[in-house]
């Protein structure tokens, strides 16, 4: 008997196919931008920098002047598949060491990676198809030398993917997809745009959205600040009594917004993930209902080690299997409860009629509501929710409910010059009372 070995070396194509199958084009773009944001954080920069994104049917290019990448780090870490679970010093976003590779492989075949950190210039050009053919050689050649920066130039990194795969090329050529990405960037990186980095997308500087909270003597948010298992968190819950006319934008519509290390993970969420589970699951919020359309909740989580955050690998959802997730969810429920109780009581008479609730919220205005608008990030300390106590109604009020053919209701609505079914009911009832002289 002689000893021998079995060749179990993985085929690169299979490896790439597995790596890229569960990620979409949108997530790839965000992953590449995350690297630029992380560079700003890791380099401990304090002045404003820039990320430029170019996206079309020919290429995807991400350029940033957020510090560049050291030669040895590029050589040993950047293109290695997987990363060590080390303690981190700064609240970054990179976790598993697969985001950059997965993204470029998903998009196309020709990859250019160029960086200059002020000490060294490095250039890597890669044809993925050619690299795949060298089955057992996983190394990637690159060129390096002294820095090429001139006076005043900031260290930079540029990633360009060309020879796009057909499905990616088609998607990047669609105006609706480009518009979607533009809006997504304004939401996902709103805190980064606000505090650190200018984003330029297809030559247009993006204006970020804002999260603002109404604050006055009558309206105060419920705020909870804490720390658990290495994760610092702030939870802010409040009502938007203006029915959204003052506060409404893409990340301030209804439900919860969840941020991890300043990156938006979930927006306007009303699912079980953020606690809307119903009476059958004790300790959580009720199932979402239109009576809660005025509810707003923001959660800001931060951790120096991103592995502590309850994130999935694509950073597109929360990992609901972690201890941190369950702890934060419990605190979210606790912080939201006084707001939910207030809204439940406010609309208790209409709970069974969703259309009446929505009409009531649209036609009722808070004329006396004149708050100060404060950025959500300004609330640093735990505080209790406060809202006006509903004034007692001197005269007992009851509801009238009946159904009529929509065609004739629309005719009456037009004749009366009103826009809602509720107003039709009020006008016709008042007309009858006056005609029959029933007011006494």
Which helices and strands occur, and which strands form pairs?
Elements: H1 12-20, H2 25-42, E1 49-55, E2 60-64, H3 71-78, H4 99-107, E3 108-116, E4 120-127, H5 128-133, E5 143-146, E6 156-164, H6 166-172, H7 175-188, H8 190-195, E7 197-201, E8 204-205, E9 212-215, E10 222-228, E11 231-239, E12 255-260, E13 263-269, E14 295-302, H9 323-346, H10 354-363, E15 372-375, H11 406-416, H12 421-435
Parallel strand pairs: 1-7, 12-14
Antiparallel strand pairs: 1-2, 2-6, 3-4, 3-6, 4-5, 7-8, 9-15, 10-11, 11-14, 12-13
Helix pairs in contact: 2-4, 11-12
Q: How would you describe what is shown here?
A:
This protein has 440 residues and is α+β, with helices and mostly antiparallel strands. It folds into three domains: 12-205, Histidine kinase-like ATPase, C-terminal domain (Heat Shock Protein 90); 212-378, 2-Layer Sandwich (Ribosomal Protein S5, domain 2), CATH 3.30.230; 406-435, no CATH class. 31% of the residues lie in helices and 21% in strands. The chain contains twelve helices and 15 strands. The protein has helices at 12-20, 25-42, 71-78, 99-107, 128-133, 166-172, 175-188, 190-195, 323-346, 354-363, 406-416, 421-435; strands at residues 49-55, 60-64, 108-116, 120-127, 143-146, 156-164, 197-201, 204-205, 212-215, 222-228, 231-239, 255-260, 263-269, 295-302, 372-375. The strands form three sheets. An eight-stranded mixed beta sheet has the order 5-4-3-6-2-1-7-8. The protein has a five-stranded mixed beta sheet with strand order 10-11-14-12-13. It has a two-stranded antiparallel ribbon with strand order 9-15. A hairpin with a 4-residue loop joins strand 1 and strand 2. Helix 2 runs antiparallel to helix 4 (99-107) and helix 11 (406-416) packs across helix 12 (421-435). Mean pLDDT is 86; it is low at 361-367.
């Amino acid at each position: 008997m002689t000893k021998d070995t079995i060749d179990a070396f993985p085929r690169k194509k299979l490896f790439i196919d597995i790596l890229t199958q569960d990620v979409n084009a949108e997530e790839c773009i965000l992953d590449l931008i995350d690297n630029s944001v992380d560079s700003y954080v890791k380099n401990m920069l304090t002045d404003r920098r820039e990320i430029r994104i170019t996206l079309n049917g020919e290429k995807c290019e991400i350029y940033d002047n957020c510090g560049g990448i050291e030669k040895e780090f590029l050589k040993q870490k950047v293109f290695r598949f997987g990363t060590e679970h080390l303690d981190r010093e700064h609240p970054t976003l990179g976790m598993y060491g697969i985001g950059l590779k997965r993204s470029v492989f998903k998009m196309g075949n020709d990859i250019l990676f160029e960086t200059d950190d002020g000490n060294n210039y490095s250039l890597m050009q890669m044809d993925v198809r050619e690299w795949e053919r060298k089955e057992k050689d996983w190394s990637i050649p690159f060129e390096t030398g002294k820095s090429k920066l001139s006076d005043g130039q900031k260290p930079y990194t540029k990633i360009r993917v060309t020879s796009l795969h057909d499905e990616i090329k088609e998607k990047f050529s669609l105006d609706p997809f480009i518009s979607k990405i533009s809006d997504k960037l304004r939401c996902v990186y709103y805190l980064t745009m606000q505090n650190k980095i200018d984003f330029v997308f297809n030559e247009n500087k993006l204006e970020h959205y804002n999260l603002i909270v109404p604050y006055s003597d009558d309206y105060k948010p419920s705020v909870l600040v804490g720390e658990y298992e290495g994760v610092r968190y702030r939870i802010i819950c409040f009502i938007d009594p203006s029915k959204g006319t003052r506060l409404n934008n893409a990340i301030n519509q209804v439900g919860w917004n969840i941020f991890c290390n300043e990156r938006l993970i979930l927006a306007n969420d009303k699912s079980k993930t953020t606690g809307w589970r119903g009476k059958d699951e004790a300790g959580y919020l009720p199932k979402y209902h239109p009576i809660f359309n005025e509810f707003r909740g923001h959660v800001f989580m931060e951790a120096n080690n991103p592995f502590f955050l309850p994130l999935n690998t694509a950073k597109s959802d929360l990992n609901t299997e972690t201890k941190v997730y369950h702890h934060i969810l419990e605190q979210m429920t606790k912080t939201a409860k006084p707001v939910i109780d207030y809204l439940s009581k406010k609309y208790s008479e209409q709970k069974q009629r969703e259309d009446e609730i929505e009409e009531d919220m649209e036609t009722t205005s808070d004329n006396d509501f004149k708050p100060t608008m404060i950025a959500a990030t300004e609330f640093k300390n735990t505080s209790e929710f406060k809202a006006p106590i509903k004034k007692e109604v001197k005269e007992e009020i009851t509801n009238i409910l009946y159904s009529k053919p929509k065609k004739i209701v629309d005719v009456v609505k037009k004749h009366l010059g009103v826009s809602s079914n509720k107003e039709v009911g009020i006008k016709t009832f008042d007309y009858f009372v006056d005609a029959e002289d029933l007011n006494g």
